[in-house]
């Protein structure tokens, strides 16, 4: 199984630091921690490739290689996410989406084949179980919050650490004030 994980591009906003990063010879501010963690939740026998559009271009050969395309991002990345989904669908790929953008706006993405929403540590195993049985649903969701002690270490091997200005470390989930 070949899975292509794609992190959409940030527009030139506060989040991108696009112009400032040139001064320190970096391509992006932070790595796509969510997708790197998702990669660790996928079966070990699967081949995984991550394309962070803030660091590299999505090539046709990346899409041709993939059996599945997984997309995750934040609301500010909506336009780029839509473009990724359109390209993946044009290549005949099964598209799986999750993360804040899709959890809040899944109805705006009719071309996505499957939404794995909320906390991936809970919903990805549900998705994988159904996939094994050949019964993939369109939506996977849960209100359950995982114990942070059970969150796997992100698969850092999928990126070039030198492309990023800083690294991130997850120590909690969501806003403590229920934002």
List keywords for this structure.
about 180 residues, alpha/beta, Rossmann fold, six-stranded parallel beta sheet, about 25% helix, globular
Question: Could you explain the architecture of this structure?
Answer:
It is globular and about 50 Å long. It has a 6-stranded parallel β-sheet with strand order 2-1-3-4-5-6, with helices on both faces. By secondary structure, the protein is of the alpha/beta class. The chain has a domain at 2-18 and 25-116: Rossmann fold. The chain has helices at residues 33-41, 60-65, 78-90, 100-105, 120-132, and strands at residues 2-7, 47-52, 68-72, 94-98, 114-116, 139-140. The model has no long low-confidence stretch (mean pLDDT 92). Helix 5 links the parallel strand 5 and strand 6. It is built from 5 helices and 6 strands.
